Sequence to fold (573 residues):
Amino acid sequence: MIGMGLWRRYVAFWNEREGPESLALVRITFAAALIGNLLEQLLAGIVLELYAQPERGGIFPLEYPDTPLSLFRWLTPTPLVVWVLFWGQLLAAILLMVGLFTRPAALVCFVIQITLTQRMRIWAFGGDFVFCVFLYLMVLAPCGAAWGLDARRRGQARADVPCWPRRLMIFQLTIIYVTTGLMKIGSTWSFMESWSALYLALNLPGIARWQGDWAAWVYPLTQVGTFVSKWWEITFFMVALNMRLRRRVAEGKKYGPLRRVLARWDLRVPYIVLGLLFHISLTILLDLGFFSVVMVCLYPCLFQPNEARRVLEWCAGRLFRRAPSGSTPASPARPAQPDLQ
Amino acid sequence: MSTIPTPATAPIWRQHFVAIFVTAHILCVLISARPGPPGGTVTSAELNHPEVKAELESSVGWLHRHIPWRETEEEMMRDLLAVVQTYNRITGAAMDRVRPYLEIAGGEQHWHMFGGTPPRFPLLMIVEVKPEKERGFVLFQDLNWGTKESSAMNFRHRKVHENMHVGESLEVWDAYARYWARHWNEEHPDRPAERVRLSFTRLHTPSAEQVRQGESDRKPEKGLQIYEWKRP
Fold:
């Protein structure tokens, strides 16, 4: 009976509902990052080099795709096919950003991303895989429920959406950071070799934007950077834990001293600020393409619907001097309480 | 106004379905994202790689000095490798079970981006070309810092070099050499490429203290992993 009760609570947790604004904001920022990633390839003039057959402008021979979703199981990467896929994904990403035919657009983006990432396996960076896993979640999530042309066509935004897609996004973001942090077990990431990992990274030819001798003169700073980035990543799960505890406290749950301390401050603020500093520093110091951009564009999944609403209204006010179309009016049925996960 | 999430409104069967699906998804992702060596294996060739050797000497040496559960570092290394191989075998078997789902759900979760150790001995690719009717090779691409070629190169080429160093097929090396031959021919239509030589140069990153004392020589070791392509 205890097991059944726990299961019912577990089912209820995943099926809770919330305002659609957070998902809408992630959809917009993530689609913008995808568009940026495609434009970078276009402007660098490497689209055919990455994807086409060697004798038709590409570089590497086609390997038979592992993934069942790859369109290159049935299509040959001729220049025409490559350009159709490329422009198709760009168009779908634009539709995803403006929230028109949102779910089909997310599906098209996802399938083409899988196809292209698999084709350019030898070229692929972490950022390409981030696009793949989050586009899958975009397909599952009702991202077009607000702040998009789909919502405008319906006449109004949906009052609420399930919480689980956004919670899966938070889980996935946490997994990326925590796993990356756990992999930093090398001695240069610890006192064993005096936290020298960042210094070494700044001395990687090609990846580091400048010859790394300068880093020797700010070595203590690089040591601090090594320590902070490693432990910021490993402890990123604290954000989700803190969100959960603060929500339970707001509901009136009484906790012991440890969990009370953990729930006392909103840990999203320091983690997001550190994350922004981390990714801005990476982008300035190292040439890693769109990795940092896509990661930062996922941060809105950490915002609560009312916070996302404020962000979007502020942006829309700046851009259009009025509130965004299809925005959700605060539901009168919802009580005015702290908005917590 | 702000809100706490409201209770579910979906039919009961659908609520249970969502909970089961989400749980299965989380389990698959957790299994796939488990920490482990890139590729999931530890071979003797990998253990003899200069980067791996330096890392093991440093970390096992430290363990031996502070927690010496065996007489020698070599014995401790064997113990640790046995643990790693067992861990890889068990987690690898779990991974085989979840791979079919992950192939549909956007791929496996290899977040090695900034995991691992930045190389102490970074590698540079060098491209040399022997033009037709000329006697020797000329340097075409020196991908060290500050060179024109390096600045012009898209960041994705660095990933290609990394993968080629770790062990891509000869077909890949051949295709990459052909790519540089085409580039050479576009830039030098009067001196078409007859041969292309790809190789790596290994640098040694000096310590911060050495650099501050004016010893910033990176002691390049040239001519590693040479591959030569000849025009058919």
Chain B touches chain A through 77 residues (CB under 8 Å). Strands of chain B lie at 123-131, 138-142, 193-202, 221-230. The mean pLDDT of chain B is 88. The two ends of chain B are 73 Å apart (CA to CA).
